[in-house]
Design goal:
The protein contains 17 helices and 22 strands. It has 460 residues and is an alpha/beta fold. A 9-stranded mixed β-sheet has the order 9-10-8-11-12-13-14-15-16. It has a 6-stranded mixed β-sheet with strand order 17-18-22-19-20-21, with helices on both faces. A 5-stranded mixed β-sheet has the order 2-7-6-5-4. A hairpin with a 5-residue loop joins strand 17 and strand 18. Helix 4 packs across helix 11 and helix 11 crosses helix 12.
Length: 460
């Protein structure tokens, strides 16, 4: 963050200054009292379990310059009506003071975080980049990311999530995208939105915010995304496997560990890419990143080289680890929806050719009325894939077992367990050297602990 006097912060946020106006915030903006650094601004959010105002004295004693608060505290502070909204105003005010920063924003039902990480690694070839850790993609995480930018920053890469109509419009009001990327319209959060058409309406708010002179990067292989071309004032650039896509992949292959190689084709030329990421679905994310980087001014050779060097950044997303006994553990447990689960299962089948494969699957959350049907479809997909075993974790995922049982030709084994501990026990009884295990579920399931337990066994 660029240094700002407290008086300026009060002006930007519409707050009331309490304390010396010449106090300068020179450090980061933080919401965790443990992350305070000298010169920081502490945003005192009120949550269900804690009230940030209770930590004000401690953070000031630890060196924070001031507090952004909803009521006066002892020490320098700016008092606002709503700290969350004030964070957004402050982030917008900061960006207005950084006219040379190119904002790249990504949304979609699946792959947002992985694509955001790829874009950041590619555009870093053109200068300093700021991007969020993990999935900081809401009304708190996004402003905190923006507020990390300073005069050296050339690219600001943001992830924008939505739980309903208007959420992305709010985020783009904080950080208007110069480059807006829409990956796909799937079934994630379909229960909250009430249908894929509403999801498309919400995701399209991103390209509506792209100004004339900006670029909307759209998935040519997803009809609901491609149709968003009519909703933007910016230039439209398409990506995908379609031969009509402006940025596309040709000559695609997968190695034995499910890592893709392909030729990146752009209007400016073609170049070879060898991804270090696992699963064929990573190609689509890489193409989106390539199209975004092209819009930011990078050439095909630089983009291809950077994509080939890119590594997983955010945890629990297709993390592939091989134990000493040859068992391969695929930890994709950060989150799950029907589209991402099918993609992970297809990657599992490819990696396990000639080896036994097991899938440990938990609940896919926020599917609403279609939850039972979608879980059953995943069970059917598992059975038709021909893997050796399915371990279903938790009552809310039980329909997966029912779906698998509906495929009469499947000769594999299905086990239903209540929790993570039981899943680990079931696996321990069945795993043999060289088996491959996929672990995937929504955050509420906490299935990353299954993968961690399997790797801890190896360490012992």
């Amino acid at each position: 963050m660029i240094p700002l006097p407290l008086s300026t912060i009060a002006e930007i946020t519409g707050g009331t200054l309490h304390g010396p106006p010449d106090v300068v915030v020179s450090g980061p903006v933080v919401i965790d009292s443990r992350a305070v650094e000298p010169g920081a601004l502490f945003a005192a959010l009120q949550g269900k379990r804690a009230d940030g105002h209770d930590f004000a004295a401690g953070v000031l004693a630890a060196g924070a310059a001031a507090v952004l608060a909803q009521r006066p505290v002892e020490g320098p502070c700016v008092v606002v009506a709503d700290v969350r909204e004030a964070l957004g105003r402050l982030a917008r005010g900061l960006l207005e003071r950084l006219p040379d920063v190119t904002v790249v924003a990504v949304t979609g039902s699946a792959g947002k975080t992985s694509t955001k990480d790829l874009i950041a690694q590619v555009v870093s070839r053109a200068g300093p980049v700021v991007y969020p850790p993990g999935s900081f993609n809401n009304e708190i995480g996004l402003p905190l990311t923006v507020l990390r930018a300073d005069a050296r920053t050339r690219h600001l890469v943001l992830e924008m999530g939505a739980r309903g109509i208007g959420h992305i419009a709010y985020l783009t009001g904080i950080a208007r995208p110069d480059v807006g990327v829409v990956l796909n319209v799937g079934t994630a959060h379909v229960g909250e939105f009430g249908g894929r058409e509403n999801i498309a309406r919400a995701k399209g708010e991103l390209v509506e915010a792209v100004p004339p002179g900006g670029t909307a990067v759209l998935n040519a292989d997803d009809p609901l995304v491609a149709a968003m071309a009519s909703r933007t004032r910016g230039e439209v650039v398409t990506f995908g496997r379609s031969p009509d896509a402006l940025v596309r992949a040709e000559d695609e292959t997968l190695d034995e560990r499910g890592r893709a190689r392909f030729t990146l084709v752009t209007p400016e030329g073609a170049a070879p890419v060898a991804l270090r990421l696992h699963g064929s679905h990573a190609v689509q994310n890489a193409l989106a990143a390539a199209a975004a980087a092209r819009a930011a001014g990078l050439g095909p050779e630089v983009i291809a080289e950077a994509l080939s060097a890119a590594v997983p950044v955010s945890r629990w997303r297709m993390e592939v680890t091989e134990r000493a006994d040859g068992v391969t553990v695929v930890n994709d447990a950060y989150n799950a929806n029907p589209d991402s689960t099918r993609a992970a299962l297809d990657a599992l089948v490819h990696m396990a050719r000639g080896r036994r494969a097991y899938a440990v699957l938990g609940e896919m959350g926020e599917l609403g009325a279609v939850s039972v049907a979608e879980h059953a479809k995943i069970g059917q997909h598992v059975a038709r894939s021909g893997i050796a075993g399915l371990i279903v974790v938790g009552a809310n995922a039980a329909a997966m077992a029912e779906g698998a049982g509906q495929v009469a030709s499947w000769t594999g084994e299905c086990v239903q367990v209540d929790d993570v501990g039981a899943a680990v026990a079931a696996l321990s009884e069945r795993l043999a050297p060289r088996d491959v295990v996929l672990v995937k579920g929504s955050r509420v399931a906490g299935l990353e602990r299954v993968a961690e337990a399997l790797l801890a066994e190896d360490a012992r």
